[in-house]
User: Which sequence fits this backbone?
């Protein structure tokens, strides 16, 4: 083609020729590599938003911050080579990711409450909060640095407002603000702050500034898969190794049954069930010496849609200056126990239920047993004693509630899981029945997050058949005068 021909081609015709020579637009990943600012910045803003608001249902209080923390990591990872401030933000986001995912894994263990209540974790939480504010300051400085390189008049109003917004959020949490006006205004202001920060991408595009993307040996997808793999593996370990109490099991000695043989024979004559009597410790048997009367109530309670749990109440009247009774609550799993998590017994003794008629005459005792490979193993409860819980009454005032609990775990593969609790009461006034409640909290499966023990579940929440736990209640109610048991099962 001659020079004259080139000169006759108009500029618009030349542009049409270029457009026709390109069959389609480049893929999104290629376009992002050319102008990489928008994608990481949007990830950072989305991450900040997901970490700012907590929705306390459907586990969103864990899912949304987990996504937000991951987005912050990916966003700052792409910008870490742009300036030193974004590099610091990336380092801080790595710490945030380790911190948050560690706590997600700890939530699968029943020991999380013990760990959370330590002084070290409290200091770590304060340190994490300080890191969050420092990260926002570095984000603000990083944006100003980019604006200077792009030839834009430096301004960081949005980032500055974000720092103030988070400070106000912490203040509201500190004073435990419960109104809706201020939080509503903060939500609206947060939307405007994020909108202001989003405009930065448009400013950089208009200025023609191109950010050099950070070279990554590992792709974003690989980072997400790695984090999910760590979370799943850590959670599996948490549920497996941190889902039950460490019990001190020993083989039941053969000569223990020979102790207090005379007392045992006397109790059998009075009608004490032999399967319960065989599980009673020698010390508790000795306390029944001089028994005058035995009252028994047996109830096969439905568990897992079958009558699988047998609860037996036994009252033993013993000689003394005052009328005195030893109350035994015995449980026996007749078939498969199911999940080997945590179990709990909530005991409402007669001196709590009928405080005008009975008083405590000693500590609560008991133990747990199981069979395996032809041998019987025995252990003390992991916890046996009183627990005080603080709750609000109708007037909004704090009230203390002290209850007796026994907590334990059974090993996987055990059979005939059983145990008992016992206590002694003295009569204060005549004419009162003995009413003693035995509430058994059974863990049906592992599907709970965060992980809590059966005792914690009973102390702080109402139980139903829905969820990982089930409550089975039994009342042992009898008249101490004639020994008649009032059946309500």
Assistant:
């Amino acid at each position: 083609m001659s020079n004259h021909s080139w000169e006759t081609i108009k500029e618009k015709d030349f542009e049409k020729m270029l457009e026709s020579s390109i069959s389609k637009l480049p893929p999104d990943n290629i376009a992002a590599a050319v102008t990489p600012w928008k994608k990481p910045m949007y990830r950072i803003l989305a991450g900040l938003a997901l970490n700012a608001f907590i929705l306390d249902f459907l586990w969103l209080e864990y899912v949304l911050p987990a996504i937000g923390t991951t987005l912050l990591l990916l966003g700052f990872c792409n910008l870490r080579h742009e300036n030193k401030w974004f590099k610091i933000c990336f380092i801080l986001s790595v710490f945030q990711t380790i911190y948050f995912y560690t706590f997600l894994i700890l939530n699968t263990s029943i020991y999380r409450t013990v760990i959370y209540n330590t002084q070290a974790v409290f200091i770590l939480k304060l340190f994490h909060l300080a890191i969050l504010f420092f990260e926002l300051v570095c984000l603000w400085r990083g944006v100003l640095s980019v604006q200077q390189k792009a030839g834009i008049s430096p301004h960081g109003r949005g980032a500055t407002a974000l720092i103030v917004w988070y400070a106000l959020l912490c203040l509201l949490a500190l004073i435990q603000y419960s109104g809706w006006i201020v939080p509503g205004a903060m939500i609206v202001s947060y939307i405007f702050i994020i909108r202001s920060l989003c405009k930065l991408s448009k400013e950089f595009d208009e200025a023609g500034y191109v950010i050099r993307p950070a070279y990554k040996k590992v792709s974003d997808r690989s980072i997400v898969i790695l984090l999910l793999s760590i979370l799943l593996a850590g959670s599996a370990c948490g549920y497996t190794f941190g889902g039950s109490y460490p019990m001190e099991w020993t083989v039941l000695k053969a000569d223990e049954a020979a102790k207090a043989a005379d007392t045992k024979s006397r109790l059998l004559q009075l009608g004490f069930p032999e399967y319960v009597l065989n599980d009673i410790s020698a010390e508790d048997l000795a306390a029944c010496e001089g028994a005058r009367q035995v009252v028994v109530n047996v109830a096969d309670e439905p568990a897992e849609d079958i009558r699988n749990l047998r609860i037996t109440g036994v009252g033993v009247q013993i000689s003394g200056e005052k009328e005195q009774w030893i109350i035994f609550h015995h449980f026996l799993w007749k078939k498969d126990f199911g999940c080997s998590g945590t179990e709990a017994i909530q005991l409402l003794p007669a001196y709590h239920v009928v405080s005008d008629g009975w008083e405590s005459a000693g500590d609560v005792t008991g133990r747990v047993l199981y069979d395996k490979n032809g041998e019987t193993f025995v252990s003390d409860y992991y916890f046996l004693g009183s627990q005080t819980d603080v709750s609000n009454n109708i007037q909004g005032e704090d009230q203390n509630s002290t209850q007796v609990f026994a907590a334990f775990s059974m090993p996987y593969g055990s059979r005939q899981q059983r145990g008992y609790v016992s206590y002694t009461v003295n009569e204060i006034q005549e004419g009162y029945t003995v009413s003693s409640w035995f509430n058994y909290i059974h863990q049906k499966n592992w599907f709970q997050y965060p992980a809590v023990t059966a005792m914690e579940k009973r102390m702080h929440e109402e139980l139903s058949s829905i969820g990982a736990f089930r409550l089975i209640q039994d009342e042992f109610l009898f008249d101490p005068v004639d020994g008649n048991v009032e059946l309500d099962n």
Remarks:
- Residues 3-241 form one domain.
- The radius of gyration is 34 Å.
- Residues 119-149 form the longest helix (31 residues).
